[in-house]
Backbone:
């Protein structure tokens, strides 16, 4: 891996940590908090993945989660350690890796960048894929049905849609400042 790509992967892992400085919002409906860190997942996929490819977006999330696993309090609310992976939030955390990959995969293959295309990629990877991992693990850890966990997860949709819009706007702005021909040469 080139040093430039390694720096970008590290930078997006750092962005995830910085977004964790903002306190979580507990809804009282579910033990899984609302955080801004899913915004970081979407940004890593739609910016880093678009420039270097989906594996680099996923690597940024793997690096971040490895740091969390070692005990660094990088998750929102100062959480960290291996125990967070065995909580109702654990599936969502693992979903960040594949979510960033899917967004990066779609963004990397775009011949032309548009807000709608990036928005759809962020919805697919940043919401649907993350929920695909998060909801079953949440159900398992809470000892409830998957249907019940999915119903509880509806509370996250408005905030996640707002994060999708912000990530998409930022990604389009950044991608328009980097011509596609430059992206492909890296």
Residues:
């Amino acid at each position: 891996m080139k040093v430039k790509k390694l720096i970008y992967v590290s930078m997006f892992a750092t962005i995830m940590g910085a977004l964790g400085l903002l306190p979580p919002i507990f809804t009282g409906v579910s033990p899984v908090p609302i955080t801004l860190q899913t915004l970081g997942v979407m940004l890593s996929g739609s910016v880093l993945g678009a420039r270097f490819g989906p594996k680099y977006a996923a690597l940024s999330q793997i690096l971040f989660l490895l740091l969390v696993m070692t005990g660094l309090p990088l998750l929102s609310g100062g959480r960290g350690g291996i125990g967070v992976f065995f909580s109702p939030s654990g599936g969502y955390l693992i979903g960040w890796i594949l979510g960033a990959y899917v967004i990066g995969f779609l963004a990397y293959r775009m011949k032309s960048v548009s807000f709608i295309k990036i928005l759809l990629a962020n919805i697919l990877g940043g919401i649907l894929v993350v929920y695909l991992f998060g909801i079953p693990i949440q159900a398992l850890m809470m000892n409830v049905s998957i249907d019940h966990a999915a119903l509880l997860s509806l509370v996250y949709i408005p905030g996640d849609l707002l994060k999708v819009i912000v990530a998409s706007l930022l990604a389009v702005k950044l991608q328009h400042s980097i011509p596609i021909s430059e992206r492909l040469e890296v």
In short: Residues 3-185 form a domain with the Arp2/3 complex 21 kDa subunit ARPC3 fold (CATH 1.10.1760.20).
